[in-house]
Amino acid sequence: MKSILIAFTLAVAASAAQLDELIPKLADEVVTNRYAAQMELQAIASNASKPGNERAGAALGSALAAKAADASVPQPARVWIIRQLEYMGRGEAVPALTILLNGTDAELRECARRALEKNPDPKAVEPLRAALQKGGDINWKIGLAHSLGEKRDAKSVVLIAPLLTDPKAGSAAAKALGAIASREAVAALWNVFGRLDAANEALVCAGNRDASQAAAIGKRLYAECPLSPVRAAALTLVAKSEPKLVEDALVGHDVRLQKTAVDLLSPAKLAAMLPKLPDTAKVFALRVIDSEKTVLDCTTEKGEAIRVAALERLSDIGGAASVPALINAAANGSELEKVAAVASLSRVNGDGAGQAIVRQAGQGSTATRVVAITALAARVEKAALSSLLAYAGEADAEVSKAALASIGKIGGDESLDGLVKLVLANKPGAKDALQAVAGRSANKSVVGRKLAAQAQSAGVLEVMSLVGGADALAAVVKLATAGNDDAIRALCQWREFAAVKPLLDVAAAPGVKQVHHVLAIQAVCRLVKAGENEPAQARVDAALAALQAAGREQEKKQVMSALASVKDRKAADSIIKLLTDASVRTDAAHAALSLADGLRKQDRGSAKKLAEAVKKANISSDLNKKAEQSLKKK
Fold it and tell me: How far is CA 5 from the centre of its chain?
């Protein structure tokens, strides 16, 4: 025992030493300078109050309490010290906090009240009760009543009850008494029932706190209070003792009470009572009932809200039997029913639901089949892809369109061959589906080879241009070289920089059609601008080759614009050389000034060099002026 006492004494001394170092910083005249010390003390207190650190926590608590009560410690430091006691103080802090609670400093008094309120030691309630008995201004009394309520101090009821009639303190007093929930507290609340609104909520609180009084409180509140929210809360208090009241509330006309009653009754009871319920109560009940047959029967009720609630509920409890009703509602119901049914079809997961939707997709009217086919995509039913491909080939345009849209959403590489055939058959929507599926493929080379094997259709060629890949490009180039118009157009839509060389070959080919020549030059310009991840020299070379192949003034302007998009010294050097070419010098000057703006932040030297070159070329007074302005920019 002696060794434990010595250890505790040493721990207290160590904690006091730490505090002595922090106190001047906690009271720094500059408020913002206190923050670091505040966080350090908070961390020390947090660590000391961890489970297993009881001895250290008690030592620190004693040290903090001593400093909090020490009038020589600056007030700002004492405030922060008491805040730590609020979270980790125990019995060792109660005497010091009691002194502060009865002191003259209002801020320290308030801090002490909060700390005592949270202090778990049984003795912590006594100074709070004594302070309320002593009195003070009304706000102080309210704070003390709150603290005593939090501590559920039954002995304080006699002190708090008189505050119920105070206009300022009445609500706080009622809340405190509701928290205390003793029989005396409840009696005091009934004394002001009907005159103090806060008493209603306080009585409900008391009923929840004390099970022995719950039924009596609830029954009287339900019978005498006209307020629907209070009666709903009261209903929960009497649910076990007065089940008839709950059932009566369910068949009544108060919507709030209906909802509360639904929450209190079992799904089986709700199902049994369903036929005699008002429409609003049926809607609430349908969200809980777990009988699929009962809910299914409600999908044909007269009230739209009931039908919608039933359709929504089937998403959670429905199986194969629910699918026809959901599909019919999604195809032929009101707008609200359609939304609910479509959402449920995407989620319904009871026995056989998925297989039932697959069956519905292959039979029935066009409208119901389209709904089922669309649901398969929403459910990502990949096992149905072979069936969807078959539906996509049908003569019914709506069914085919829906099937292709679904394949586009969930199809993978296994669907490519079938989609290519549908594209070749000119099925509307097949090209979009093929593009979507091919674009998702993780193996572009396989996709490219599959598409290349069928690269005779304009639709397939267009998809190839969007998907890309070396195999697809080789197939398209081969056809383009042979003069295939669709292949040339596909090549001109290519998204990968690798298409630049064959595009330049098309543009420079002898006897090339003017439209193909123009499209090829435009495509090269597009790839040069978009190829920010490509080597700058490759982009510059591509632009210069396109410039050499360009025939018309408009095309040369486009090439110059592309060259100016390459924010690199190599592009700058190339444009400067073109300033001496009489055929393009004006466009080169505009490109130079554009590139100068783009390079100014990353390569100020090249930007300056471009502007000086334009000025030296002396092409026009307007360009000279712009070059001067460029040189002045920072």
Answer: 55
Backbone angles phi, psi at 491, to 5 degrees: -60, -40
- Check: CB of residue 562 under 8 Å from CB of residue 529: yes
Tens digits of per-residue pLDDT, 190-230?
999 999 999 999 999 999 999 999 999 999 999 999 999 99
Distance of alpha carbon 133 from alpha carbon 157, whole angstroms: 11
CA 146, CA 163: separation in Å to the nearest integer? Answer: 12
CB neighbour list of residue 315: distance below 8 Å, 6 or more residues apart: 343, 344, 347, 348
Q: What is the pLDDT of residue 476?
A: 87
CA distances from 609 to 357, 537, 566, 596 (A): 70, 19, 16, 8
Per-residue confidence (pLDDT) for residue 455, from 0 to 100: 65
| Residue 535: count of CB within 10 angstroms of its CB | 12
Residues of the chain with pLDDT under 50: 1-13
Q: Is the dihedral of CA 19, 25, 31, 32 positive or negative?
A: negative
Question: In the numeric block, which tokens belong to residue 444?
Answer: 């572009």
Q: List Cβ<8 Å contacts ≥24 apart for 150-153.
A: 150/117, 150/176, 150/179, 151/117, 151/124, 151/125, 152/179, 152/180, 152/181, 152/209, 153/125, 153/128, 153/129, 153/180
Distance of CA 346 to the CA centre of its chain: 22
pLDDT of 352 = 95
pLDDT recorded at residue 231? 97
The kind and range of the H/E element at 169 are: none
